Amino acid sequence: MNKAKSKNGSPAENYSMVELHVPDFEAVKKYYGKLSFSDVWERKPDGFKGYLVIKKGNNILCFWGGNENIFGHEYLANLIEKCKEDMEWK
After folding, report:
1. How far apart are CA 17 and CA 21, in angstroms?
2. Other beta carbons within 10 Å of 63
3. Sign of torsion, CA 21 26 27 29?
């Protein structure tokens, strides 16, 4: 497998940061823990104020919510309704 190279020929460093809204931080930690992500910081869910940050190397994943309140989020509620047609939601 070829690795990306920087202009000077050394391996290029890759960084990524993604933010997602999820209803369950524990499920996130269990799933991504199996992929070797580790917890960096967590604000326990309280209404819409929950936040979780996990990291693996230079890759950071951030999660909002952590409880069922995300389903009542003004913007996300419309997306969820559209997705229900294509996916099975619990």
Report:
1. 14
2. 23
3. positive
> Distance between CA 30 and CA 4 in Å, rounded?
30
Q: Which residues pair with 62 in a beta bridge?
A: 19, 53
The total domain count for the chain is 1
Let me know the angle formed at the C-alpha of 16 by 8 and 49, rounded to the nearest 5 degrees: 155
In tens, the pLDDT along 51-62 reads 999 999 989 999
Q: Does residue 69 lie in a domain region?
A: yes
Residue 11 in any domain: the answer is: no
pTM value?
A: 0.71
- Parent domain of 23: 17-84
Give the domain CATH number at 55: 3.10.180.10
